[in-house]
């Protein structure tokens, strides 16, 4: 049997630096855990534009479709701000999401004990937090037709359409229920069924899928505004939250900020199962390309490393190894190792991007 | 000159109790500040249904249209849960909002120093917070057509339409700029112009109104997901936030929860100026009718009293008197007076609804 394949698209800014540290981790799993991957590198975003005049070539798109998982660093930078809309670095990422049909966006909101003081929330509200927001990523009001700005009489009118089909809701609901079974078996579905028919359908379909296929999972429903409140009040009440594209956009970002560790958070975007049973999958840190610190060895590689941990868990069914990696990160933080972004007001001496990667590899060694 | 008129719709549950305390305050302003109001009482919600078989009679609607301001307590209760949709207590409130065309919903998020420990946020993040969220209340995706659930082939499809006209955006933008001039002169407008054309138009119109009429006010723009993050991280960066109906729904509730004083918060819903120059206006606490504690003298009247303070400021141009009332509330809290809902984990002896009203009247006396 051949090794599973990874396509690495390091991208722009700090992307290549943090991805270098991920490669150390990948190498470690091949050497020490007999978990070798066939790794291929390619370009995305500004880097692809510089080389090929497009933020994602057809050849790269083809490779992404055939890889067992795609790891992405970050895209974008001031150098590309004046490019035409269709050539902007972000279009490369959007093309990947669209053509791979990655409808289920997994956004963990986790708070490492060692970093709990970074949160604007009180320590007991946030320490040890571990929830997962599943955001529908390919439909809803950001994509629905009709859309646009037109004239009615003397007035401009702006229109967007929130539109969800039964099957679009069903597939992301299944994704959330599957996740819950691997976690604490609880799903809270959020919409505005009190004022939106698309929310009424959302609630109906989630309820139907639950009754027919996932009755063992605990399901609750909450209006999205109440959900925003409850996330701010006591986020630990949740396990998995499933919601639509727009609500998920706001709620996942709010939850991420609540952890105080925005720069530490990974994400996964999953699609339908491929012939080998693995879902189409793209893993990337939530943070951006941070062009201001690129190339200086200051970047924090943890979000990208934790994205690889998600790949271990969700693409390669290696939950125990994913946990080993997450625990290694936790240990390094508990030991007081900090990249520059993690130094609090009391200061201290930061370690470099590479030193952080090495420390995590050391912690992995120590775990054996 | 006749006195300004107030229509009081106390409603259901704790509504009548808390409104009794507001009446003490109104009486005080007539006696001690030569600010007399012509007060009329009427019914709304379940109380109106019990008396007339409808949650709002045409006669009451007519009075509301002609009053200088409407003060509302709260509507709803388990007794009315089985009523037909059109007869539910909430429909009375929705009819008022719709027929008075109250497009600008003012939701202050304030945190009293004495209550800062109730927040899930750290004390320094939230103590003394005073921001104002202006939510467009009569248009957007909760109202746009087409809407509904229909079949396409074998599938159900749920549709809602986000739709904003130039004039709908312009009038709520003006409302926010006017407010900012009475506060700290800063407006932040939030939308998703990066992915929604209705957001593009929102940003354009807000910018045009700013340049043409309010160039003296500081204006910034933020994507609504970043706005949700920033509200959680450092809410004191904002003064006035203006946003659409849906984003405002989530952001105002999240901000309210962040203060930790959800039961303390007032609101105003304003429409176009009437012949006398005053805006159509309805003032109400953010909290609900709390049927579980109704009639027991346990309710906290402060949110309703602060709603009257908003009426003083926004309907009757009595900013100094509004501030006097707010300071009186602050003093009573600083003195340690607490209704049952404000007792922390350390306990203490609660005072009754009436005792809280009396204490605030006393503090008003002391302010003279
Ligand atoms: Mg977002
Ligand atoms: Mg709401």
UniProtKB/TrEMBL annotation, chains A, B:
Span of domain Isopropylmalate dehydrogenase-like: 5-360
According to UniProt, where does the site described as Important for catalysis lie? 142, 192
InterPro entries registered for this protein in UniProt: IsoCit/isopropylmalate_DH_CS (IPR019818), IsoPropMal-DH-like_dom (IPR024084), Isopropylmalate_DH (IPR004429)
Example GO molecular function term?
Answer: 3-isopropylmalate dehydrogenase activity
Principal localization reads cytoplasm
Out of the domains of life, which is the source? Bacteria
> Which reaction does this chain catalyze?
(2R,3S)-3-isopropylmalate + NAD(+) = 4-methyl-2-oxopentanoate + CO2 + NADH
Report residues binding Mg(2+): 225, 249, 253
Cite the binding residues for substrate: 97, 107, 135, 225
Under the cellular component aspect of Gene Ontology, which terms does the record hold? cytosol
One GO biological process term is:
L-leucine biosynthetic process
Q: Which SMART domains would you find in this protein's record?
A: Iso_dh
In this chain, NAD(+) is annotated as bound at 77-90, 288-300
**Compartments in which it is found:** Cytoplasm
The record's Pfam families line, in alphabetical order, gives: Iso_dh
Name its co-factor(s): Mn(2+); Mg(2+)
Pathway terms, separated by semicolons: Amino-acid biosynthesis; L-leucine biosynthesis; L-leucine from 3-methyl-2-oxobutanoate: step 3/4
> Entry cofactor note text?
Binds 1 Mg(2+) or Mn(2+) ion per subunit.
Give the function comment from the record: Catalyzes the oxidation of 3-carboxy-2-hydroxy-4-methylpentanoate (3-isopropylmalate) to 3-carboxy-4-methyl-2-oxopentanoate. The product decarboxylates to 4-methyl-2 oxopentanoate.
Q: Which family does it belong to?
A: Belongs to the isocitrate and isopropylmalate dehydrogenases family. LeuB type 1 subfamily.
Oligomeric state and interaction partners are given as: Homodimer.
Q: What is this protein called?
A: 3-isopropylmalate dehydrogenase
> What species is this protein from?
Limimaricola cinnabarinus LL-001
